[in-house]
Amino acid sequence: MTFIPPTLVAVIGPVEPALLAAWTAHYRRLGIERFLLAFHFPDHVPDAQRHELLAATRALGIVPTQVSTGPWHEHTNTELRDGLREKAGPGWHLIADADEFQTYPAPLADVIARAVGTARRVVGGLMLDRVAADGSLAPWRPGPGLERAFPLGGHLTHRLLQGDPRKIVLAHSSADVASGNHRASGHKPDPDTLACVHHFKWRSGVLDDLRRRVEHFSSGAWAEHTPAVRSEACRLLEHIDRHSGRIDVADPRLAFRRVTLDRLPEGWAAEAATITTAWRPPTAQGQPGSTISSPSP
């Protein structure tokens, strides 16, 4: 049977055109041919920046599926993503944010074939946060590339921010995916074949974005369902303040080391399976939850 590559669906915010170009090239190397992208711009984004990104998208040979402006409510991303998945139609969908570069243990055709062979309708991944060598929130130039600008990968999201590091990276059209692409109700990924989701969020400008997020969610200008996103942003801002504007890459809890997009980190299968199986949401007291109960779906 001829393999049909999954359709990539993504909700894109006001990212740098160079980041989108690198992201598109990465997924084309994985074999993706069809991109369905919804662009959403909060009100503070200048028209010139919006037009520049949309023009750059078309220059990459991609016609935006949808463009919208306005508040970035917590439900905005989910609604736009689900609309894209409906347009994508039957079959497998690859789901990735614009700062997420996925690395798989095998070619996509083999990964999907294994999922089908084990009667799974989703494939999972685990986030690995990419940061500059000195922990600074660095700007980057397209010339040197993302890999050289952000050579370290570690577990910032769940070990410091107490966020959910699990991701649904591939989902059959029949599987519903939860907000943030962290879970799929009724479906569990194979914990032994998790993709590495290289997370290039920690760049120049992210602190302004996080402060804006905290302000708008706190004031009610942007609607939230839980305080989790706002709490994670506050934890990062507090950490940055304590460490002179940098992420503490020497903290052994965060396990930062040099990694690459070309292959999975050494020992990734066991490391990712252990983290995914043990992770729990923080308790009401703000501490990581117990790892005794069975994993959530």
UniProtKB/TrEMBL annotation:
One Pfam family cited in the UniProt record for this chain: Glyco_tranf_2_4
Biased composition (Polar residues): 284-297
Region (Disordered): 277-297
Protein known as: Glycosyl transferase family 2
The organism of origin for this protein: Streptomyces phaeofaciens
